[in-house]
Every structure is written in C-alpha cells, then in structure tokens.
Design brief:
Layout: H1 6-19, H2 36-54, H3 62-74, E1 79-83, H4 89-101, E2 104-109, H5 112-124, E3 131-135, H6 138-141, E4 149-154, H7 162-168, E5 172-180, H8 188-198, E6 202-205, E7 216-219, E8 223-227, H9 230-240, E9 248-252, E10 265-271, H10 280-290, E11 291-302, H11 323-333, E12 336-349, E13 355-366, H12 373-376
Parallel strand pairs: 1-2, 1-4, 2-3, 4-5, 8-9, 10-11
Antiparallel strand pairs: 5-7, 6-7, 11-13, 12-13
Bound molecules: S-adenosylmethionine.
S-adenosylmethionine is lined by residues 57-60, 83-84, 86, 89-90, 108-111, 114, 137-139, 155-157, 159.
C-alpha cells in the first residue's frame, strides 16, 4: 500500500512468506482447496491482499480492482482484453469476475519478467484456465488477436493510450465496455474523450483512481430502429447517412402482425407509438419476450387527452392513456418494478387554433432476473416533471 509505513510493509511481506510459501517463488499453483469457492475466498481475502501489501507495479488501487470485478460480473462479460498486466493484480480481479460468467481474459504485458510473474500469480489464484498471459508489445499483439472482445481495460502507465485504443477498435463488440485507467498523461485524456464523443459512445468519467490521472469508461451500444412505415424509415436512413457511424440499423416491421424471433435486447423503448396500436397489451407481451433477463422497457406516450392532439388522424387508436391501465398491462405480461413519471408537458394549438395543454408519461418496467444490473436499478417513480410546464 502506498501509505503504509515501511515497518508495517516489512511485517506484511514476512507474513506472506510464512503463510503462502509459494508466493516467494517456486511452485506456480496455490495451496490445495477442497472447492473452487474456497479457492476464490482465499484469493479475495488473502492472496490479493498480499499483492496489495507489496504494491510494486503501480497496480490499480484495491477499490478499482473491486470495481473491475463487479463490472465484469454484473454486466456478464464473456471475453475481456487487458493491456498492461504487470504482475497480474488487475487481471486476477477481472479473471475472478469472468470465472463466474464462464468468460476469458487475454492480458498483454511488454516486460518479459512481469509477464512471467503475471502468469505465476494467475496460476496461484487458480485462474490459469480463465486468464491467458501474453508477453509482447500491445500495439503489435493487437494485430494478431482474433474474434471480438466485450470488455477492454487499458492500464499502461505513463504512455499515450490513444493509439492503443485505436488499434483494438475493430476487435470490440457492439456492446463492449472500454475502461481506461489513469489516462492523464501525454494529452491522452482530451484526445481519447474527443474520439469517444465523435463516435457517439456513452462516456462515464471519474472512477476512483490513485491520483496519477483520470479514469473513465465508455459503453458502446447498438440501436435497432424499427417502424412499420417505409417512408418514415427512409427519412431516418437519410439522416443516418450523415453520421452515426453504423451504430443504428433500421428494419421495416409491423410489430403487431409480424412474428419476431431470434434477437434479444437489453432495452426496448418506444416514444409516441403506443397510441397508434389497437391491442397494446398484446404488443407489450411481444416486447417482453424480446428482452433478456434483467432487460428494461421504457414507454413514452400521451396522458389522456380530448382527441385534439392528432385531430382526425386515422390510425390513432387511443386519445392518450390512463397510466394505471398501462401499468396493469405491463404487470399482466410479466414486467416487474414498474415506475412512472411525467416526462414532458407542453402546449400546442389544435385544428381550430385553440391552445391545448398535453403531457407525456415515461413508464419503465423490468424483466426479472437474478443478479442482473436492471434488478438493482431504482425504478422511475414520482410525478415530478422532467421539463417545464410549457414548451
Ligand atoms: C500501471 S502498470 C499495470 C498495472 C496492472 N494493470 C495492475 O493493476 O495490476 C503498466 C504496465 O504496462 C506495461 N506496458 C507499457 N507499455 C506497454 C506496451 N506497449 N505493451 C504492453 N504492456 C505495456 C508496463 O510494462 C507495466 O507493467
């Protein structure tokens, strides 16, 4: 630990030698355990703490290691890549999370001695079938990697990380999480942030770091835009040709009639489409079956209005909705943790020029699942406006 006194560090190292002789060198496997649960508990309570006590390789702080573990586990990552293994401390945290998901990590280290040490520590932690240690320059190794990764962690010390991120971009899945640790060096922070924003990635800044720079992570998502009207889709497609970098794809589909199979999604949202659907409960049942366990639905539509919003527009089956009724339908088809709030209030003139007030609700619901992020999200609730009362 950086702030431990020299004496307490010496004691910690002495204890390591007594309690875990193999850490001092020699055998590459840890003590014998009767179960993998016992081994994992030992790694978390003893082995990682021993490495922390020696903290020689600018390892991530323990809080960041725990964050990596939680993130990998809770977002069900399957295939991770790390640049900058050092002695394998962060790789072990990531590996423990992946082990629970049946996933794998490739970790790359340029220094041969450190890479060997990483391999040894990974072996001690019993993670040799989860973590693959690669010795080499990450920029060169990235050209040899096959397949797609859904998690990418860069922790390279005092280097410009931008080129490393660029070298791996084509190997990242659409829903990859990219986590950059301590990128305050060599102008990396601004350059990387600008790059991420240009690509429309969701950027989250300011994870705890050890004071040498910044950390932030980026979640990349792909959006599927579905509509039953070819004309509406062609308007969207014209806009997409000007940007969006392949992150949005379109499909012409009548959700009330066509069978939907195969694809599963994390989030389904619909804005101002529900009042055009006659049998909303049937549609909500179909949308429920499109979601993965823990997935979320978000619906924005009109509160009950007097029919003036669309005038005599054909294809309008509901003059807004009673929120209780939509909540009942969501519950009936299986959604849980339903929440609702007013999303927007506005005024507009009706066909005869009389100004009318309208409001939109936002309603959310989740597909139940053990251990998925969605379950821990606080449902949207309350009736407070997200906007001013007139637009
Ligand atoms: C801050 S340490 C990594 C600490 C590690 N992630 C942890 O928390 O346990 C940075 C490591 O990146 C390695 N490194 C620097 N440039 C590299 C490159 N081009 N390719 C691979 N590794 C590199 C360094 O040798 C060093 O071991």
């Amino acid at each position: 630990m950086p702030n431990k006194s020299f004496v307490s560090r010496l004691i910690a190292i002495a204890c390591v030698v007594v309690l875990v002789p193999s850490l001092a060198g020699g055998a590459s496997s840890g003590p014998d355990f009767s179960s993998s649960e016992e081994r994992r508990a030992w790694v978390l309570t003893t082995f990682l703490k021993d490495i922390e006590a020696r903290w020689r390789f600018h390892n991530v702080p323990a809080a960041d290691g725990r964050f990596l573990y939680d993130l990998v586990r809770e977002t069900k990552r399957q295939r991770a890549l790390e640049f900058g293994s050092a002695n394998g401390y962060s790789a072990i945290w990531i590996g423990l999370g992946l082990e629970e998901n049946g996933g794998r990590l490739d970790t790359v280290e340029i220094d041969p001695g450190r890479s060997k040490l990483c391999e040894k520590n990974v072996g001690q932690a019993g993670l040799e079938s989860v973590v693959n240690c690669i010795n080499g320059d990450a920029l060169k190794v990235s050209k040899t990697l096959d397949g797609k990764y859904d998690f990418f962690f860069i922790d390279l010390g005092v280097v410009e990380v931008f080129s490393f991120l660029e070298s791996v971009e084509s190997k990242l899945s659409d829903d990859a999480i990219i986590l950059l640790h301590n990128i305050g060096f060599e102008g990396s922070y601004k350059k990387t942030l600008d790059y991420a924003r240009q690509r429309g990635w969701a950027v989250e800044k300011g994870r705890p770091s050890d004071g040498h720079g910044y950390g932030f992570f980026v979640v990349r998502k792909h959006l599927h835009a579905w509509d039953s009207s070819p004309a509406m889709l062609s308007v969207l497609e014209a806009k997409l040709r000007k940007g969006a970098n392949g992150k949005i794809s379109t499909k012409c589909i009548d959700l009330t009639a066509d069978e939907i199979s195969g694809e599963k999604f994390d989030l389904v949202y619909s804005s101002m489409a529900l009042h055009h659907v006659r049998d909303t409960e049937r549609l909500l049942g179909k949308l429920y079956r499109l979601l993965v366990p823990g997935g979320c639905i978000a619906l924005v539509d009109l509160d009950v209005e007097d029919g003036s919003f669309h005038g005599d527009n054909p294809g309008v089956h509901h003059h807004g909705f009673q929120r209780d009724e939509i909540e009942r339908q969501l519950t009936t088809v299986g959604f849980r943790s339903i929440g609702q709030r007013t999303a927007y209030c506005f005024e507009k003139p009706d066909e005869s020029g009389i100004t009318k007030k309208y409001s939109l609700f936002l309603m959310t619901g989740y597909v139940a699942a053990e251990g998925r992020l969605g379950e821990f999200d606080v449902p949207v609730s309350g009736t407070d406006d997200l906007s001013s009362s007139s637009a």
